[in-house]
Amino acid sequence: MLSEFVGTFTLIFIGAGSICADAYLRAQGQHGIGVLGIAIAYGLATAVMVTAVGHISGGHLNPAVTIGFWVTKKISTLDAISYAVSQLLGATLAAYVLTLAISDSIWRTVGLGTPDLALDFTRAHGMVLEGIATFLLVLVVFGTAADPNGAFNRIAGLAIGLAVTMDVLVAGPFTGAAMNPARAFGPALVAHHWQNQGVYWVGPLFGGVVAGWIYGSFLLKES
Q1: pTM of whole model > 0.85?
Q2: Theoretical Cys-Cys bridge with 134: which of 60, 69, 112, 179, CB 3.0 to 4.6 Å?
Q3: Positive/negative CA dihedral, 128, 142, 87, 13
Q4: Rounded to whole angstroms, how far apart are CA atoms 139 and 74?
Q5: DSSP 113
Q6: Can you say how many angstroms the Cα of residue 92 is from the centroid of all Cα atoms in its chain?
């Protein structure tokens, strides 16, 4: 639980923090880091922390990953709940620390990095895009970190981080590319920015369930 807490704290601190950094640079009349910079920051944070704590807890750092492991019976119900609580608490503390470290005039302009939908993007579109992005992420998690026959389990953190990066590059402009209910919940709770919050629970959790079920049922061959 502690490793999941610390790992998720890092993801939200870096992911939401990079959005605040982009807003600060733009407020100063400079070029922001943009979607590419945010994608790299979020992907690197994921890669680093999955590598750091993967041998302890599996490095889920995301309720959507945890639910994928739960539906395939790779984790007990009690452990799944414990992981999810740890992830949400880590995300909330990270968001709160950002408000202490960054000026109100900066983080409030971007809702503390809380993901939200583009103006012409519907909730249905958002759930579909978040679901697909999370499906791809969780599929990579299973293929590299969960499959005992996977050839690349030693570099699972890198592969998972790259999956996050590619997802953000596509979905970021439209939904913020949370792919993680904790990523949406922590900043939303601290910033009181709850718009379209359901999109970031329904889409990622559904994507995680489908990815876990498909990999566990059709692709995973236990040794």
Answers
A1: yes
A2: 179
A3: negative
A4: 14
A5: G
A6: 13
What is the count of structural domains for the chain? 1
- pLDDT for 169-210, tens place per residue? 999 999 999 999 999 999 999 999 999 999 999 999 999 999
- For residues 5 and 91, the answer to whether their CB atoms sit within 8 Å is no
CA dist 106 and 112 (Å) reads 8
Q: How many CA atoms lie within 13 A of 53 on its CB side?
A: 20
Q: Where are the alpha helices (DSSP H) in the chain?
A: 2-27, 34-57, 63-71, 77-101, 104-107, 123-141, 156-175, 181-191, 199-214
SS3 74: coil
User: What would the two tokens of residue 141 be?
Assistant: 């998690």
The domain that holds 146 is classified in CATH as: 1.20.1080.10
Q: Phi, psi at residue 126, to the nearest 5°?
A: -60, -45
